[in-house]
Every structure is written in structure tokens, then in C-alpha cells.
Design a protein that fits this description.
Radius of gyration: 19 Å
Helix content: 25-40%
Order of helices and strands: EHEHEEHEHEHHEHEEHE
Distance between the termini: 30 Å
Mean pLDDT: 86
Number of strands: 10
Number of helices: 8
Low-confidence stretches: 187-212
């Protein structure tokens, strides 16, 4: 695939930068963007970085508008299969212990990128974020003006403590890449989580013997219908989950994490919601 990827807004500290909360959008979307591009290239895709760092006001044009126009110009300079705009959301009403979540925008209900948008939503929500779904917005400049099918990913909320606690740049990027391609990167040199010392934590690979992948398991059943009943309970409580068949048992799990602390955070949320859980390595 040929894919345009960009982080939205000007960099932090400039006019037209992104949302600021517990974390900063224009910092984190660039971290995620860089890792998305690295993984896509490692998987053999052609990727163009269309991020703009020099948006400036001129005449009646604001810095934010200048950024958008320059992004679109960069994107449309390539004949791409997909445009990916990476953002972080804000405006959470953080009154509980659950995440506000992730959502992905497309321009029209019949957009060719609709399936990709849904796959990205599902992949990010599998990390433990609430799935706010695919949303249609024909007013977003980048979605309207780019020639390739386009998605705008709102990874999570910068001002929700639960989102920020769960968020990890490498995991977020991996989810986006999987949503786009259905592939997982086999390289293991992912960057450390912003602002945290992860020198002693395991790095992600994919499906290799060296990989340490932490999952939160809610149950293991010999009867499939019992496992499906647990899936429904979890879904009703706001937890996206998946079923793995192993050793004759149907195992219900939530999330897949490269960093143990993130898996433990989800384990606490599930226990607080009344579920019996264990942490497992896959």
C-alpha cells in the first residue's frame, strides 16, 4: 500500500498547536505518527510523512488554517491508497474510572475508508479504550480536501486520567497499523513510552518466541456458550474483548499489552467492575 500519514496541528508552543491536558496532543500525535510510519515501512509499505511543523498566520489566514492547507498539499502530491491523520481528543468529562475512549472520523457514510476506520477503532479499543465508533463529519478540512480515502484517528483523550494511564505510544501505533493493514510488525525496536523509563520493560515483537505479551484473562471455559455469555457481560460493561481457544478451553481476554503496567491498570479496572481476572503472558 501507499499511505500518507501525518500528525495534526502545529508543534507544541506554536500557534495552532493541538489540545493540552494531562498530556499534549502535538507531542503525542507526533510520537504515534513516527512509530506508525516506522512499522508500516518495516512491513513493506510505501509511506509519506505529511506532517507540517511550520504553519504560520498570514493575511487573513490563521496558523491552524495554514497547517491544514499545507498538510493537504503534501498529501495530494502523492497517489496514495489511504490518508491517515493522527490526533488526540479533548473535552472529557472525567467523572469516573473508565476511559472516554477512541473514535475515527471519515468524510461520508460511503467513504472507501469506512472499513479501515472501523478496524482501527476495534484495534485501539482492544487495548482497553472505550470504542466510540466511526463517525461521519463532512466539515473536517483534511477529510474533505484530500484525494485519497482518508481517516482521522482520535487516539484517546488528553484530559482523561484513565485514558492517559492506559495510553502507550508503541501500543497505540501498533493498533493503528494493525487496523490499517491487518499485519503486525515483527521488529522489536519500539521507542519507550513518553515520559516513562521503560528500559527494563519487554519490547514488542510479534508472534515470535521472544515476545512477552500481557493479556488480562476473565475466564476459561470448556463450553463455548458459557464463554460467549461472559463476552456479552464484558461488552455490556463497556469492555471490548476477544476469545482465544487453547488447550480445549475458550479463554476470554481483554487487551494485549507490551508493558506490564498497562495490563495491570486494565486488571484493576475489571476487578473494580466486579470481574474475576488474572494476568497472563502470551
Amino acid at each position: 500500500m501507499i499511505i500518507n500519514v501525518h500528525a495534526g496541528h502545529n508543534p507544541d508552543g506554536k500557534a495552532g498547536c493541538g489540545a493540552v491536558g494531562i498530556i499534549r496532543e502535538s507531542t503525542e500525535n507526533r510520537n504515534v505518527k513516527n512509530e506508525v510510519i516506522r512499522q508500516l515501512k518495516a512491513l513493506g509499505h510505501t509511506v509519506y510523512d505529511c506532517t507540517v511543523d511550520d504553519g504560520a498566520a498570514h493575511g487573513s489566514v490563521t496558523a491552524a488554517s495554514d497547517v491544514l492547507a499545507k498538510i493537504v498539499k503534501k498529501c495530494n502530491a502523492h497517489t496514495a491508497d489511504l490518508d491517515v491523520s493522527i490526533h488526540f481528543n479533548a473535552g472529557a468529562r472525567d467523572a469516573d474510572s473508565s476511559t472516554t475512549g477512541t473514535e475515527v472520523y471519515i468524510c461520508t457514510a460511503d467513504s472507501k475508508a469506512k472499513g479501515t476506520a472501523q478496524s482501527i477503532c476495534n484495534a485501539i479499543s482492544a487495548l482497553g479504550f472505550k470504542n466510540r465508533g466511526v463517525k461521519v463529519n463532512g466539515n473536517l478540512y483534511v477529510l474533505r480536501k484530500t484525494t485519497a480515502p482518508a481517516v482521522l484517528v482520535e487516539c484517546c483523550f488528553v484530559d482523561d486520567k484513565d485514558d492517559v494511564e492506559l495510553y502507550n505510544c508503541a501500543d497505540m501505533a501498533s493498533a493503528i497499523v494493525y487496523g490499517i493493514t491487518g499485519q503486525k510488525c515483527q521488529e522489536s525496536n519500539k521507542p519507550s513510552e513518553t515520559g516513562k523509563d521503560t528500559s527494563a520493560t519487554p519490547t514488542d515483537t510479534t508472534a515470535t518466541e521472544q515476545k512477552v505479551n500481557y493479556r488480562v484473562q476473565v475466564g476459561a471455559y470448556s463450553v463455548r456458550t458459557n464463554a460467549e455469555a461472559m463476552q456479552k457481560r464484558l461488552k455490556a460493561a463497556g469492555f471490548d474483548n476477544f476469545m482465544v481457544k487453547n488447550g480445549g478451553l475458550y479463554k476470554i481476554q481483554v487487551g494485549a499489552y507490551s508493558i506490564k503496567a498497562n495490563a495491570e491498570a486494565m486488571q484493576k479496572k475489571l476487578k473494580a467492575a466486579g470481574f474475576d481476572v488474572i494476568l497472563v503472558k502470551a
